[in-house]
């Protein structure tokens, strides 16, 4: 760093602080903006006389600091678009203007009007000033005295090179340097009266005492965020119109910028509701889409459902970690420049991996740690879950289903152990913002350049202790529109449930060898088509629960869990499997627990649960004016009554059934034909290419080879982007077990038009129609038609030679894929079409 002296434009101040240096950030703490304007104008005039490039960064609501002229570059920025965009714009400006540019910024205190947070002003200063210093610039800033917390001022003092108090007393301006880094003069830290171009030191104790007696010294104050909510409480006794204005201002601070959701929140939340949310918030900023959706859905049911829903709803006990904490974590650990690089086109994926690793290892500021600890004291030793609640999550058209992490904390052990587990859970969710699937999802949906602030929703896990385990009696997802219509009589508008015993992880994820209970709410007794002998095969075999002994989420055999006692009528969840019990007796297996079939028959047939859930979904969809997707738990009392805990609600992206399709008759020259087992409505789609993973050759590969095929599919997916392509292969796409299918990530098949899963005859692996899972929601949002084929079953025609007879384009698309040319066949199939009709439940591809 070169220590060239730079003038403030006032000779006396230059003498007091031994001039400015290249690299200096100069902060003036003033009583009113006019004081800063006079100082900034003198600095700007001197800079222009010295031939410096001067940039005026304009964002405040106050009058311009000086009149523009041809020698001043004026950059106007919008602070109302949020901290990240504003800070990123300044970062790009500094990068563009390069070394030794001079800057004057509007008063930082004006940022409170848009950010509502002292914390974020401190963060902005911490990420901007080091970059200015690095490029040997000189920059002027101002803050209004007594408008910020002591912590904010302390952070600014620590970061800046020069900090000077400015006073107005007795008709004169005074300065009092508080910091002048890396320099010293004998009179530097005395107060000084500005007299024209001179600075007169106040060395007399009497004069100094008189000066400071006239200066207002405020006490430490709450963060501006807390001040606004404290003042809002006073409006609870105000007229309705004033309450409404205060409420909407607070909702814009908490609930985000999505206009339709904000309008619904304004309709259903009272001011008191908003203040109760704020009381449970840690840090400032938005609470995120998942939190807003959960809270809004509950208010809708309480307000619009009369006494129908409220008595059956289990109270929630949630806390909200504001989105500003995410930024503060990044800034506090010195990762902002990396965060900015990740936001560029070149660094979007390249820098994400490094940032993800860092996010897993950082430290939180002490004040945030203290708030975390107080929240954990509230929960005691009850299990909790830390869930993502980003700004873009759970909005109309963008579900982000399963893209970010949720982390269970068993919450046992010493306070220190419980705290460390919780903090690591927070880090894990933050790091998931940089997961490849999440990045690709944002990119595909045109959201890569949007702010994606990660707020968090912390919830007490719904359920109870059962021996060593903790779990709810049932959990699941529900859709107000049933998109999986497998026979003509199903009413798609009645909705559906995907129901499991235990924690809901098995309802939202595709599980290997396990099947959730699919419930059509127009007729809960109806089940998806299956052979009579497959009833036990296509059911839930394991239960997810929290184990106190292992301190983790684990899976247990359902029969063992049921035999251990569940504090409820077991028949509501499962029925004895008499056939399996008889076989066990024949084999002498008397030491094993009695076998059960988890079918929820008692719950579905002996209670009003199906009608309750149907009405709940219908009510939410009517208010949203859009189909909805919910997550919930169910807990029983010993007398068989149930209570539903509504955990999440979001708009459900749907395609509808579409118009009826006239199907061609299946023939020997078709590629395949089947009955049932498809999702995506009535379709007639042209197919230009088929990517076929040959089942026999894939299954013969070692495990490493199977993973290599998955990565190869990802490269083909990119190469065929924009073309009508069918991807077809053995077993389950997206499985985590390569022996059961191809372990691709959704990002590796996201550009496909049709996805087909084939059950190779005598292979022992089969597709899973995982309707309602996150995988299914990805297919729906991406508009990918899905079908499953069971060669050898009645009504199934399967002629793979129709595709294999065409030349293999694999090497043309991916030149280094030669080792897999016999496993993956890519055929051009111009003229091929796939037809599907819901009414007849037939699908034909020819």
From TrEMBL:
Q: Which InterPro entries match?
A: ATP_grasp_subdomain_1 (IPR013815), PPDK_AMP/ATP-bd (IPR002192)
UniProtKB keywords: Pyruvate
* Span of domain Pyruvate phosphate dikinase AMP/ATP-binding: 287-656
**Protein name as it appears in the record:** Pyruvate phosphate dikinase PEP/pyruvate-binding protein
Q: Which organism is it from?
A: Thermobacillus xylanilyticus
């Amino acid at each position: 760093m070169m220590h060239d002296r730079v003038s403030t434009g006032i000779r006396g101040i230059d003498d007091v602080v031994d001039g400015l240096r290249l690299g200096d950030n100069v902060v003036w703490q003033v009583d009113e903006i006019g004081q800063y304007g006079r100082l900034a104008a003198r600095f700007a005039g001197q800079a222009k006389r010295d031939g410096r490039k001067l940039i005026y960064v304009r964002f405040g609501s106050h009058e311009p600091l000086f009149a523009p002229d041809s020698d001043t570059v004026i950059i106007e920025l919008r602070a109302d678009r949020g901290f990240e965009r504003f800070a990123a714009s300044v970062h790009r400006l500094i990068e563009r203007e390069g070394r030794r540019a001079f800057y004057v910024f509007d008063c930082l205190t004006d940022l409170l009007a848009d950010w509502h947070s002292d914390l974020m002003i401190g963060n902005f200063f911490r990420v901007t000033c080091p970059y200015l210093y690095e490029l040997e610039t000189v920059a002027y800033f101002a803050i209004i005295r007594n408008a910020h917390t002591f912590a904010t001022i302390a952070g600014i003092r620590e970061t800046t090179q020069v900090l000077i108090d400015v006073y107005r007393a007795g008709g004169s301006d005074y300065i009092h340097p508080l910091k002048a880094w890396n320099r010293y003069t004998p009179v530097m830290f005395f107060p000084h009266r500005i007299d024209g171009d001179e600075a007169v030191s106040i060395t007399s104790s009497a004069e100094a005492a008189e000066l400071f007696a006239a200066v207002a010294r405020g006490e430490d104050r709450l963060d501006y965020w807390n001040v606004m909510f404290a003042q809002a409480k006073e409006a609870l006794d105000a007229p309705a119109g004033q309450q409404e204005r205060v409420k909407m201002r607070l909702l814009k601070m908490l609930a985000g910028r999505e206009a339709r959701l904000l309008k619904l929140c304004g309709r259903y939340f009272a001011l008191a509701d908003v203040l109760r949310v704020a009381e449970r918030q840690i840090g400032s900023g938005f609470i995120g889409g998942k939190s807003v959706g959960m809270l809004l859905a509950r208010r809708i049911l309480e307000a619009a459902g009369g006494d129908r829903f409220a008595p059956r709803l289990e109270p929630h006990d949630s806390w909200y970690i504001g989105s500003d904490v995410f930024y503060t974590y990044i800034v506090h650990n010195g990762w902002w420049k990396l965060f900015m690089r990740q936001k560029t086109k070149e660094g979007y994926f390249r820098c994400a991996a490094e940032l993800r690793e860092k996010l897993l290892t950082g430290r939180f500021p002490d004040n945030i740690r203290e708030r975390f600890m107080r929240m954990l004291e509230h929960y005691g030793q009850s299990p909790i879950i830390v869930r993502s609640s980003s700004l873009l999550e759970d909005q109309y058209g963008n579900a982000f289903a399963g893209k970010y992490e949720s982390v269970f904390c068993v919450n046992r052990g010493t306070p220190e152990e419980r705290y460390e587990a919780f903090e690591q859970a927070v880090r894990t969710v933050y790091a998931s913002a940089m997961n490849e699937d999440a990045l690709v999802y944002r990119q595909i949906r045109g959201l890569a350049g949007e702010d994606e602030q990660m707020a968090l929703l912390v919830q007490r896990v719904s359920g109870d202790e059962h021996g060593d385990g903790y779990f709810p009696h049932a959990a699941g997802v529900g859709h107000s529109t049933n998109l999986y219509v497998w026979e003509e009589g199903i009413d798609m508008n009645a909705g559906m449930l995907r129901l499991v015993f235990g924690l809901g992880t098995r309802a939202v994820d595709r599980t290997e060898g396990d099947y959730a209970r699919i419930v059509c709410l127009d007729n809960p007794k109806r089940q998806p088509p299956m052979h009579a002998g497959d009833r036990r095969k296509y059911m839930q075999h394991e239960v997810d629960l929290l184990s106190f002994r292992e301190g983790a989420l684990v899976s247990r055999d359902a029969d063992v869990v049921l035999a251990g006692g569940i504090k409820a009528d077991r028949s509501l969840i499962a029925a004895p499997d008499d056939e399996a019990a008889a076989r066990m007796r024949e084999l002498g297996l008397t030491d094993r627990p009695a076998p059960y079939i988890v079918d929820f028959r008692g719950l579905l047939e002996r209670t009003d649960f199906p009608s309750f859930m149907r009405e709940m979904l219908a009510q939410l969809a009517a208010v949203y004016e859009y189909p909805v997707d919910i997550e919930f738990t169910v807990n029983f009392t010993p007398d068989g009554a149930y209570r539903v805990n509504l955990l999440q609600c979001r708009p459900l992206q749907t395609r509808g059934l579409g118009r009826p399709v006239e199907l061609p008759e299946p023939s020997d020259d078709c590629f395949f034909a089947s009955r049932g087992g498809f999702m995506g409505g009535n379709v007639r789609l042209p197919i230009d290419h088929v990517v076929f993973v040959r089942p026999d050759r894939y299954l013969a590969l070692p495990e490493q080879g199977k993973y290599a095929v998955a990565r190869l599919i990802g490269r083909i997916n990119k190469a065929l982007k924009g073309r009508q392509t069918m991807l077809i292969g053995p077993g389950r796409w997206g499985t985590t077990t390569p022996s059961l299918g191809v372990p691709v990530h959704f990002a590796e098949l996201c550009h496909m038009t049709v996805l087909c899963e084939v059950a190779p005859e005598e292979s022992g692996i089969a597709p899973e129609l995982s309707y309602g899972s996150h995988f299914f929601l990805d297919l729906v949002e991406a508009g990918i038609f899905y079908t499953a084929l069971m060669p050898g079953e009645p009504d199934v025609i399967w002629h793979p030679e129709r595709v294999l007879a065409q030349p293999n384009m694999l090497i043309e698309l991916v030149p280094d894929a030669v080792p897999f040319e016999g496993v993956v066949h890519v055929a051009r199939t111009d003229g091929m079409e796939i037809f599907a009709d819901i009414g007849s439940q037939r699908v034909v591809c020819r």
